[in-house]
Amino acid sequence: MTRRRAEPFKIKVVEPIAVTTGDYRSQAIREAGYNTFLLNSRDVYIDLLTDSGTSAMSDDQWAGMMLGDEAYAGSRNFFALEEAVREIYGYPHVVPTHQGRGAEHLISQILIRPGDYIPGNMYFTTTRAHQERAGGTFVDVVIDEAHDPRSRHPFKGDVDLAKVRELIDRVGADRIPYLSLAVTVNMAGGQPVSLANMKAVHQLCRRHGIRVMCDATRCAENAFFIKEREPGQAGRSCREILKEMLSYTDGCTMSGKKDCLVNIGGFLATREADVFQKAAQMVVIFEGMPSYGGMSGRDMEAMARGIYEMVDDDYLSWRIGQVRYLGEQLLQAGVPIIEPVGGHAVFLDARAFLSHIEQAHYPAQALAAALYLDSGVRTMERGNVSAGRRPDGSEYFPKLEMVRLTIPRRVYTDRHMDVVADSVIDLYRQRDRIQGLRMVYEPPTLRFFTARFEPRGGMLANP
Ligand code: F0G
Question: Rounded CA gap, 97 and 101, in Å?
């Protein structure tokens, strides 16, 4: 018999959550314009909107909050953060920012000139938005398998080196300030990048004088997949693997709200003294002094402590295991999901789930709304709505049309995962009753946050 394993922590504080009726939820989702981003959290039972800023902190992190040194300059918590970044990530220079996109803003403005190209292993919404604001064009260089929900490639986040070479030949290396390397790849389903691929990307870019900037948002989770899947890595700690991964990069942007187990914060880190200097100049204008960059002292302390906790092998194995636990229940019931299950979320393949709804009618958005209606579980659309429009106004119609069931870290029990699985499986059985949506309000950028919809044909799934 396989012995079951439980959480490597116990619960010290609890937060009650709302159990609502179907009628209540029907009104709530209508008032939210069928956009789960616009729901009030008090109306949500299990909140799988995001793993960003939703982690439970440890008692040690909370204790650190009491040691906040709120000095305007030179806070001792900044030095704790700097030391954690040097030790765990291996970058000498760090500039705190209020969250990941603050760091994306800085690096995009510092390195990108109008007309430049930025290759990346699949786009991320805020990352690409900042690249475009700086006058750059994002070019997808992820392997083709990443766009195929059924491919079980163990490292679906890998960069396709041939696509990078093709870009270099087409536009010239001097038009490519850096390659943006995300580990894991959020929009591909939380899929990891292999160590071998990171090394090869590093070597190729170095030959052409192109930097590798890592989006390290979920890098510890990526390290776990390497330990589990890459030949020869099983005997190493995630901490060791992470250090090697990042040694193949020149710097990183980081959203501390994910792997670092805090509710707010991020940073830009670099090996280059001149990039650091420019970032330190710019951060003063947009975020705050280089020794706090939009964070309070206590938040920097919590993040510094979270950085050590995030590389704990037992924690990571439990964390990835919980996501997989949910994914496997869905697979067993025949629900189409992105395979293999990724690091931070289970992604429903909304195209296959709702094959009767065309992509122009936003099947993933409709499925997310239906799931909330069914059980009060809040999820996120990651498909045509998230992809937005090209500069010429046309929609991207991405190959992946998904609903993300994102698991906050250390927050929910496996029993919560059972409730989620039951709801998704039930909906799958009655999928014919779910109808597409029409967008009735569309903001000009990052539309998924605030767009509003109406069902095209009356009701969504009626529980
Ligand atoms: N990069 C990746 C891969 C992300 O997933 C995110 C945020 C960011 C950068 C930006 O960081 O939110 O701290 O400014 N992802 C969240 C999500 C919003 O729900 O996936 P941020």
Answer: 8
Same domain? For 137 and 218 the reply is yes
Pocket flag, ligand 1, residue 137 (CB < 6 Å)? no
> What average pLDDT does the segment 22-44 reach?
97
Q: What is residue 461's predicted lDDT score, i.e. its pLDDT?
A: 47
pLDDT of residue 306: 98
Q: Catalytic residue, from 218, 382, 409, 447: name it.
A: 382
Is 448 tagged catalytic? yes
| 60 is a catalytic site residue | no
- The one-letter code for the residue type at 221 is E
225 Cβ contact list (under 8 Å, min separation 6): 154, 155, 184, 192, 320, 343
From the CA of 126, give the closest atom in ligand 1.
10
How far apart CA 379 and CA 382 sit, in angstroms, is 10
Q: What pLDDT band is residue 458 in, cutting at 50, 70 and 90? A: low
Write down how long the chain is.
463
State whether the beta carbon of 97 lies less than 6 angstroms from ligand 1. no
Q: Where are the alpha helices (DSSP H) in 290-446?
A: 297-310, 313-332, 350-353, 363-375, 384-387, 414-429
Whether 414 has a pLDDT exceeding 70, the answer reads: yes
Q: Do 92 and 190 sit in the same domain of this protein?
A: yes
What's the mean pLDDT in 268-291?
97
Q: 130-166 burial string, b = 16+ CB within 10 Å, else e? A: bbbebebbbbbbbbebbbbbeeebebbbbbbbebbee
Which of 125, 126, 264, 380, when mutated, tests ligand 1's pocket best, judged by the most ligand atoms within 8 Å of its CB?
126
Q: Find, among 78, 61, 345, the residue nearest to 217 by Cα.
A: 345
C-beta 221 within 6 A of ligand 1:
no
- The CATH number given to whatever domain includes residue 206 is 3.40.640.10
Taking the model in full, what pTM does it have?
0.95
pLDDT on residue 240: 98
- What is the percentage of the chain residues whose pLDDT exceeds 90? 96
Dist CA 49 CA 55 (whole Å): 12
Residue 459 banded pLDDT, cuts 50, 70, 90: low
* 170 within domain boundaries: yes
Write down the residue that tokens 């009628």 correspond to: 23
Structural domain containing residue 351: 22-51+313-455
